[in-house]
Amino acid sequence: MSNTPRTLFDKVWDAHVVRQIEDGPSILFIDRHFIHEVTSPVAFLGLQQRGIGVMFPDRTFATADHNTPTINQHLPVQDPFSANQLKALETNSSKYGISHWGLGNPKNGIVHVVGPENGITLPGMTIVCGDSHTSTHGAFGAIAFGIGTSEVEMVLASQCIMQPKAKKMRIAVDGKIGKGVTPKDVILYIIAKISASGATGYFVEYAGSVFENMSMEGRMTVCNMSIEMGARGGMIAPDETTFNYINGREKAPKGADWDKALAYWKTLKTDEGASFDVELKYDAADIEPMITYGTNPGMGMGISNKIPVAEALGGGQASFEKSLQYMGFQKEDSLIGKKVDYVFIGSCTNGRIEDFRAFASIVKGRKKADNVTAWIVPGSHIVEQQIKEEGILDILTEAGFQLRQPGCSACLAMNDDKIPAGKYAVSTSNRNFEGRQGPGSRTLLASPLVAAAAAVTGVVTDPRDLM
Amino acid sequence: MKSSAVPLPIENVDTDQIIPARFLKATERKGFGDNLFRDWRYNPDNTPKKDFVLNNPIYSGKILVGGKNFGSGSSREHAAWAIYDYGFRCVVSSFFADIFKGNSLNVGILPVQVSPMFLDSIFKAIEKDPKTELEVNLPDQTITIVATGEKESFGINSYKKHNMTNGFDDIDYLQAMSADIKGYAAASPY
Ligand code: SF4
C-alpha cells in the first residue's frame, strides 16, 4: 500500500476513514466543523429529539453570516425570522459548549473567511459545513466540502460523516497569466470550459505553476468555486505559501507542535505517477478577464467576447435560451458597454483583503458612476480592519463609495441587500442563478477588477483599459 | 411505488430555484412545500403563474422528473425538504448534483438516475398522456414506463438501499460505533 503512488486527496481521505462499509460509504472522521445560523437550527432540533448531545463540541465553530445585516450591526436585527435564527445559533452554541462568533464579535465574518483567518483551517484536515462553498478550505490542502442539515446533525452527534469516496480529477493550469487576469478569472474560465456540471462526482486537485504562484487568498477564490462545476470540492497541495500564511495565526499549532505539523504537511502532495480519473490542462495565456452572461456559472466568457450561440455549447438549447431571456441578452451580444445598476464586491469568493486591494487599484483617482449602487462588503471584521489600516477605505471614500459591515450580504440576499427585479449587478460572488441576489435580479459574475471597472464607468468595461 | 409524474424538462435546476434563499429562515423543518419553486410558481404579487407545471392540474403524482444536472448549487437541505413536503417521494433525472443526491436520500426521497434517452422517453410519454404512470421498484432497482413497458435499472449503494427500505438512519449506525470514533479522535493529530 505504502508503495502505491497516491494523490493528495487519497492521502488525506485515507487518513480519516474510521470504517469502510462494504458496498457503501466510508465513515470519515471530521476534524473541523463550521456552523452558521441558517443550516444548523434544524440539526440541533434533531439532536434534541433524539435526546443526544454533541460528541466533540471543541471541533465545531459557529459564526453568524448568512442573514446578518451589513449596516448598523450594533442595533437589534429587524427581520424577526433572521433574528430568530441568530438567537438559535447563540443559544445552541452556548448550550453545547461550541465557540460562537456572533454579530459584533471582532472575529465575526463569513464562515469561509474567518476559518482560515484564525488558523482553524489547516492542511491535511477534513472540514465540513452546511454550506456548499466549504470547498474554499481546500486551498490549504484539506478535504473540505458542503453538507446538508441531516449531515450537520450527524457530525454534531458523531464527528463523522458517511460519504462514498469521490473520483479524482486534476486540473493543471500553466503558463503566463495576462494583464488584468485574477484567480477569479482562472476559475470562471475553467468552469466555462467544463460546464456547471462538468466535475460532478469528482474531487478536484488544482496543479501547475499558476496555482503554485498564487497567494492563499487567490487559492481560496479558486477552491471556493469548485462546487460551481459540480465538484464535491477542490484542493491545492500545501507549500511554503500555505505555511507562511498559517504561521502565527491564533489557532495554528505553535512551537514543537508546529514543527511536527509542518513535517507532516510537507508529505501532503500527489506522488509522482499517482493516477487520476480525469486530467485536464489549460494554458494561462488563453485566459482573459471573465464575465458571465447567463444563469449558471458555466455560462461565462472572456469579457471582450460575444455571447455564444447555444449550438456552440453543445445542446441544452431550451435552457440556454430561457437563461438569456431571463438576463435580457441576445446571443452574439457583446457585454462591453451594457449598463450596470449594482456592483457587489464581497462574499467568501472575493471578500478578502487582496480583493479590496484589487478593487481599489482601479477606483483610485476615479469616481463612482452615478447610475451605480455599490455594496462593498468585507468578508470579516479582520478584513474590514485591514481595509482601514491599508488606506483602502480612504481611496473608496474619496471615490464616493461606502464600506459596509461583514457578512454574506448580496451573495444570497437573505438580508436586506437585495438586487431589485430586472436590475443588472456585476458581482464578485459565486452564483448567477435566477433570483440568487433577489427575486428577478440579473447577475454578472466577475472579478474585483471587472467589478471596479463597472463601478466607476457605470457600464461593463474591460478593466485592462483602466490599468 | 407506482405513480403519475410531474415533468420539469429544464436543465440545471438549481436549489435556489427549488427553494429561494429568502425562505430559509425557519428554525424548524416544516411548511417548505408551499414555497417549492416559488419564483417559477408565483408572480411577485403571489398569483400563480399559469404556465408553470405545478400550477397545471393535469399533472400530479409522487414523482418529479427533471432535466439534466438537477439540484445543482447550494447545499441547502431545504430544497429536498420542500420537494418532500410538497409530496414527492422520488425525483428522476439523467444527472444529479452530488450534495442534492445525498440530501434527498437523507430526507427520504429516492433520486433515480436514468440515461438521457430514457429520460427523453419519460418526457415523451408524459407529453402524450399526462396521467401516464411510472413504476419505481427499489428492491429491484428498476424504473418502468408502465404504458410502454420501457424499463431501466438505476444504481443505489446497498447500504443506502438497506436504510431506505428499513427506515434506518445513519446516526443510529454512528452512535453504535462511538467507541471506534473516540479511539480515532484520541490518536488524531488535529
Ligand atoms: S458568501 Fe455566499 S457562498 Fe459564501 S458562505 Fe455566504 S452565502 Fe455562502
Structural summary, described in words:
The complex is a heterodimer of chains A (467) and B (190). In chain A, 32% of the residues lie in helices and 16% in strands. Chain A is an alpha/beta fold. Chain A has 2 domains: 8-288, 2-Layer Sandwich (Aconitase, domain 3), CATH 3.30.499; 305-466, Aconitase, domain 3 (2-Layer Sandwich), CATH 3.30.499.10. Chain A has a 5-stranded parallel beta sheet with strand order 5-4-3-6-7, with helices on both faces. In chain A, α14 runs parallel beside α17. Chain B is an alpha/beta fold and 190 residues long. Chain B has 2 domains: 2-156, Aconitase, domain 4; 158-190, no CATH class. Chain B is built from 8 helices and 7 strands; from the N terminus they run βααβαβαβαβββααα. Chain B has helices at 15-18, 38-41, 78-86, 98-107, 116-128, 158-166, 170-175, 178-187; strands at residues 2-8, 63-66, 90-93, 110-113, 133-137, 142-145, 151-153. In chain B, strands 4-3-2-1-5-6-7 form a 7-stranded mixed beta sheet. The model of chain B has no long low-confidence stretch (mean pLDDT 93). Classes of the chains: A alpha/beta (467), B alpha/beta (190). The structure holds iron/sulfur cluster. Iron/sulfur cluster binds next to α4 and α13 of chain A.
